[in-house]
Amino acid sequence: MNNYLEKVLAEVKEKNYNEPEFIQAVDEVLTTLEPVVNRHPEYERIALLERMVEPERLITFRVPYVNDKGQTIVHRGYRVQFSSLIGPYKGGLRFHESVNQSIMKFLGFEQIFKNALTGLPIGGGKGGSDFDPKGKSDDEIMRFCQSFMTELQRHIGQDIDVPAGDIGVGEREIGFLFGQYKRIRDAYEGGVLTGKGLSYGGSLARKEATGYGLIYFMREMLDANANQSLSGKTVTISGAGNVAIYACEKAQNYGANVVAMSDSKGCIYDKNGIDLELIKQIKEVERGRISDYLKKHPDAQYIERQSEDSPIWDIKTDIALPCATQNELNLNSAKKLVENGVIAVGEGANMPCTKEATEYLLEKGVLVAPAKAANAGGVATSAIEMSQNSMRYYLTFDEVDAKLNNIMVNIFKSCQAAAEQYGLGNNYVAGANIAAFRKLAKAMRAQGIV
């Protein structure tokens, strides 16, 4: 590896030794940038990489709330404002017990590159809390969200930092957060949060956007490689949340046979094709477990999770779409997928494949759609929601979907062009990193040492 890249990576590992997810995210990017950095020795003189891997601002705060039993519970909140190079900080809020500083920084770092690929004027940030909404009443969630926003509101604004949803933060949570922000600020700033309900400034197609965008990217990638398509392909999708559900919907629209979905407890396998309306009822309405699928489809199979390796990756498939969480697809699972003949993997979640898994898949000739490109549809549509709020105007579902489709096509073309320019073939992982990095580096050089 280039000496400058090695030096920066070593410094990141030393300074952030207790943050494995963040180190992994930086490592995965820097190790693909050598062809670009070799052509620009001036980057080292202006410490371009050192500045790019350091957040502009890292905010942590206490979040107390009172549960339904009258007990006071204290959680920790975060907002990582990583980069405002090309626009206001933009990125989701995650409420999950696993949230810590390392995960927030890794997500924020990924967000910089993802947002750059969209071609829209949005910077990168991320936030959240180690609060888990599962099993909590609506009143408990409301009280927590109000406490969280009481602190967060000091640091955000529609021209400063625009949070959205992520794991554990859906339309319900965004509503509570927005209500508290509006109450404290005594102003209606519709563009300060995205993922809002349609009744108060949200955008049509926002809920579907990440999953749809993933499939649009997969469509382009498959077509560019031997004119393949989704039609007739067997697909497995990990997760049963927003991304997974709408990736399934769009894949089925294109004629794919989605046979498996999962949650943290296990996966459902239905060789006849997933009944998506039932999955929506279980997960979006009842907030139940995916095993409940068997109540209506006893002929399907439920496979309980026994280890850190999800059983969904043991199922024979043409296309695997990890849409749950980071590092859910490891080297062992990648080997099983390859043994079973997988041709493509599309990352719907943020960094769902370990670095070893990604390298193995690429080595074996599997097409890999990297998260920072393939799941950018959500944040792209959030930016479209911001635009609608600024214009005091609503676009139709079809208008938003058409814009999303065009953005995903352009993202794929950017990844493809960068990979081809540097002789990397169909390595779209490196292509995505290089395409985003070049835009960010140009902006960084233009704005001086700040």
Write the layout of secondary structure elements.
Elements: H1 3-15, H2 20-30, H3 34-39, H4 42-45, H5 48-52, E1 57-66, E2 72-83, E3 89-95, H6 101-118, E4 124-129, H7 138-152, E5 161-165, H8 171-185, H9 206-224, E6 234-238, H10 242-253, E7 257-263, E8 266-269, H11 276-285, E9 301-304, E10 319-322, H12 331-339, E11 344-346, H13 355-363, E12 367-369, H14 371-374, H15 377-391, H16 397-421, H17 428-446
Parallel strand pairs: 3-4, 3-5, 6-7, 6-10, 10-11, 11-12
Antiparallel strand pairs: 1-2, 2-4, 7-8, 8-9
Helix pairs in contact: 1-2, 2-6, 6-17, 7-8, 9-10, 9-15, 9-16, 12-13, 15-16, 16-17
Can you tell me about this structure?
The chain has 450 residues and is of the alpha/beta class. Among the domains are: 55-189, Leucine Dehydrogenase, chain A, domain 1 (Rossmann fold), CATH 3.40.50.10860; 207-374, 3-Layer(aba) Sandwich (Rossmann fold), CATH 3.40.50.720. It is 46% helix and 16% strand. The chain has 17 helices and twelve strands. It has helices spanning 3-15, 20-30, 34-39, 42-45, 48-52, 101-118, 138-152, 171-185, 206-224, 242-253, 276-285, 331-339, 355-363, 371-374, 377-391, 397-421, 428-446, and strands spanning 57-66, 72-83, 89-95, 124-129, 161-165, 234-238, 257-263, 266-269, 301-304, 319-322, 344-346, 367-369. Strand 3 (89-95), helix 6 and strand 4 form a beta-alpha-beta unit. Helix 7 packs across helix 8 and helix 12 runs parallel beside helix 13. The chain is globular. The chain starts with a helix and ends with a helix. The mean pLDDT is 97.
